[in-house]
Every structure is written in C-alpha cells, then in structure tokens.
Amino acid sequence: MPAMQELPLALQQSSRAARATWLSAHEAAIRRFGDGRRAYEFAREVLRRGFDRVGDHWEERRPGPMDEAPAGRSIERVTPHPTSRPGSPGRHRR
What we know:
- By secondary structure, the protein is mainly alpha-helical.
- 38% of the residues lie in helices and 9% in strands.
- Strand 1 (51-54) and strand 2 (57-60) form a beta hairpin.
- Helix 2 (16-33) packs antiparallel against helix 3 (37-50).
- The longest helix is centred in the first third of the chain and has 18 residues, at 16-33.
C-alpha cells in the first residue's frame, strides 16, 4: 500500500473505503496500462462509480430514486426490432 502522502489529496481526506477502492483500481490499472496518467484516470473513474466528490473529499454515493426500479415493477429488457439485427436487409444498409 502506498504511503498516505502518495495518494491524491482528496483521497487522503476521504474514508478508508474510498482509499481502498482507488488503490485496488489503480494497482489493477498499473498492471494493465503501466504506471502513468492512464492508470490514474482509470482509478478515478472506478472511484466515481461508487463515490461523489464533496468539497475536498470523496463520500460514498447513496442510491437515489433513479437508481432503483419503481416498487412492484421490474426493469424490462428492450428487444431490438427484427430489421435491426446484423445481416438483415434494411434501408440503412449501404
């Protein structure tokens, strides 16, 4: 685990969960992309999926009304129109 001084300042002031999320994503990104800006940006994007930046620190995101299906309803999968399948004739084919 890197020293606390090596973490971005906003993460130094954030919860342990935020730091752990960023560190594990950053380590995985280093293995995949090498050390550098790309690994840093990847880790930041992973952090943004579960945390919100509030002032000078990150806070865990709370699910909002748009994150859940309405009570008693399920989210239905949309099936594409038959002419939109690959290889099917259609007017969009060039």
